[in-house]
Amino acid sequence: MIELQGIEKTYGNGSVRTPVLKGISFRVEAGEYVAIMGGSGTGKSTLMNILGCLDKPTAGRVLLDGADVAELDDEAISHLRNRKIGFVFQLFHLLDRATALKNVMLPLIYAEEYPDDAEGRARKALAVVGLEDRTLYRPGELSGGQQQRVAIARALIVDPHIILADEPTGNLDRRSGLEVLAIFGRLHREGRTIIMVTHDEGVAEHADRIIILEDGRITDDRPVSEPRQAEGELEELRSEEHVR
Amino acid sequence: MRLYRIAGEGARALRANKLRTFFMMAGTIVGVAALTVIMAIGKGTEKKVMKRVQNFGPRAMMLIAGGGKDLPPPDMTVTTLTLEDAQAVRREIDGIDIVSPMAWRFRMNVKHEANQRQAVVWGVEPSWHEAWNWHTVAGAGIAGQDVATMARVCVIGQTVKEELFGDADPIGGHLYINQVRLTVKGVLEGRGTSPMGSDFDNRVIIPITTAMRRVMNVDYVGAIRIITKDLSRMPDQAAAIRALIHRRHHITPPEEDDFRIITAAIVADLARGTSKTLSILLIALAGLSLLVGGVVLMNILLISVTERTTEIGLRRALGATRRDIFAQFLTESLVVSFAGMLLGSLLGWGLSVLLPRASKLPVIVSWEPFALALGFALLVGTFFGVQPARRAARLHPVEALR
User: Fold this and answer.
1) How far apart are CA A185 and CA B90, in angstroms?
2) Which of A54, A108, A119, A167 is the best substitution to test chain B (most B C-beta atoms within 10 A)?
3) CATH class of the domain whose range is A2-243
4) What's the ipTM?
5) Fewest CB within 10 angstroms: A239, B74, B314, B387, which?
6) Rounded to the nearest 5°, which phi and psi values hold at A6?
7) What's the Cα-to-Cα distance from B149 to each of B79, B173, B209, B213, rounded to whole Å?
8) Angle at A70 between CA A64 and CA A76, to 5 degrees
9) How many CA atoms lie less than 13 Å away from A60 in the CB half-sphere?
10) What are the sequence ranges of the domains in chain A?
11) In chain B, which residues have their Cβ closer than 8 Å to the Cβ of A110?
């Protein structure tokens, strides 16, 4: 599905050169749920940008469905992002002036062919994240968890090959975070490919494979024998709250 | 259509921030309004000029006694222009149709029985009727015989007829001017009031010889009306007449003239007069507003690009190409310009309608300013929108999302 081959990324030029990624290679197959883990400054955001075709590596190849992204021009890469990648950001990045429905429909504006049932699809995507009754709310009227779920619906609307989530729970309380992870778990079971970047091991363990990044290199790449189930944790959380 | 959807995004961003959008279009509003008013005044003025020229006679020149820069006083005071000068013009200038000398006096007492009124008395030759295209509606006009015999006859204007004779038939009736008893032989057609407010019909015309010898006691005339056969020759003829009068009056050019020649072209310039300076002022205002407005538009848009960096990054991540971002911001600029153009046209139209009520400026409202404003809006919107749109399009998605 997506494969990185010897990715290097160096910032700056001339005498001040800062290598951030120092030869990263791995492959993610369709239907995998991968967490990329690392502390701050390990290059995980940079890796995320390269995976999302938002940035180009200094060296190495990014193969998305077998095609080398580096060979494409801005227009082709933009169309590629639109069609194949669904982004979920730590800061949600919703348009404040637009309703949840309009926010979810945003990627369709840039689609090469606008679907006739755009609004129906947006409603369906919002239903997937449990917000079918919030379609006309604006981001300011929603909680953080709800905003992130709108963002997930926005990622889903183009039916992407890969969902790329950058610290999706980073700005959420535990409960909202678990709700987001529960949605990811469900999407994964439905066969979607998810790559999530996080610094939190507790979050990463929801994936079925963890890649550990340290100082621009992969130091570990292991399957998770028993991934955590967000639904179960939510259940526990609810009963805890109940007891209290 | 993809571009249409992207344009919709631009329009939505403008609606979300109405005050800022208003400031973005303020310059365009003022500029376009000024432009609309200028064109309305321009058109109105041209109509007024045409009317003045028509009144003056498009093929006419006036050789008027008295030089200098200011207009001569309304009454005849300069004594050097004579009937012989008129003869000389008639004899020596080619391509002239009519040469018609006139002597006049304003505010002369005109009496008929118990009725009395002040009117303008004109001494004229028979050609006067043709030269002014002003004929009698009753009786007859001044004839050659009347001039030759210094006949005590007159032709009266409508106002004089109404004020002195009322409903009675004036033909064959008598008038007294300076104790000279004149028989009314005709009534002129009505011409109404001049734009300046004087009554054209408050006049009595008499044979020029009668006027000079019996009524006014002068041996000079006030002006000579000259009608050319060929409009294209008028400038040459005017020059030839000037040279002729110089010779006859023994004037050598640095010396000041004791006459002036007014042509239809000069009349047109005079009629344009004040509205011309006003138009220049308004054109300056319009140009300045559009320029300043455009710069303001550009700067607010640049600020907006900076403010919405994250939004731009997000759109790029979701699949917007550089061109899409460029199109969105250019749309914002164009929409603002067009909205400003519409509001400005409306304001200008309102002012153009109100202006004639507040001033004497002639105004004609038409569709042309709207078309021109449309062009300007396109120009301003594009010219000042490109820079911010380009900046937005060049943002790197990674930097923008940080």
Assistant:
1) 111
2) A54
3) alpha beta
4) 0.93
5) A239
6) 55, 45
7) 24, 20, 8, 11
8) 75
9) 23
10) 2-243
11) 2, 6, 315, 318-321, 324
